Amino acid sequence: xxxxxxxxxxxxxxxxxxxxxxxxxxxxxxxxxxxxxxxxxxxxxxxxxxxxxxxxxxxxxxxxxxxxxxxxxxxxxxxxxxxxxxxxxxxxxxxxxxxxxxxxxxxxxxxxxxxxxxxxxxxxxxxxxxxxxxxxxxxxxxxxxxxxxxxxxxxxxxxxxxxxxxxxxxxxxxxxxxxxxxxxxxxxxxxxxxxxxxxxxxxxxxxxxxxxxxxxxxxxxxxxxxxxxxxxxxxxxxxxxxxxxxxxxxxxxxxxxxxxxxxx
Length: 264
Fold this sequence. Notes:
This is Enoyl-CoA hydratase. The chain is an alpha/beta fold.
């Protein structure tokens, strides 16, 4: 079987493509989780990477959990404690890995993002959607709950009331409504989706990489920490940043009225 994740790199930008279009890129019942973790580890160790794009092959971004795998879990043949272990060592490793990845991740949502597929998009830093994209936090429709962190992620992106509406009804919303609710930052024609994602990624990659990485860490920590704690962390990060060659280059370029050349 081919790898679930296709990994490609163009300069400082890596594109990860979920590549099981015949099953609409599910995140369970296949090698999705270990393939994601392997790709994330590869990005961690490659300091040349400055931005990541995540998208899906075919007409869907991701259909979320595999129904056949759910059938196995609901059969009564698998003990509840074994299912708990599978979640903790399986799909629940994804939000932690993406949360701790220092490089910004752009979700280029090319089609339906359903259940865990929506939660995967929420794990990314920036979400842009094709006009054909659809979104659903549809776990209740199957008599289950968001087991992959969606109940933590979604309210932080769109607020508790709207997250509750999506989670309790399981209903599908379109790309324009997702943009109006702040779930995605922009909606573009399907044939412009990847080009738009690459343009954003290149604009990110043009900045000093240490500043981008540390800014992402601050934004992530701000999701759950106190203001005084965050300010203390920001002071430490800023002290480090002031001592970098890229900061000195940025200051010199500003004073000399020229474009900076950042080396990372």
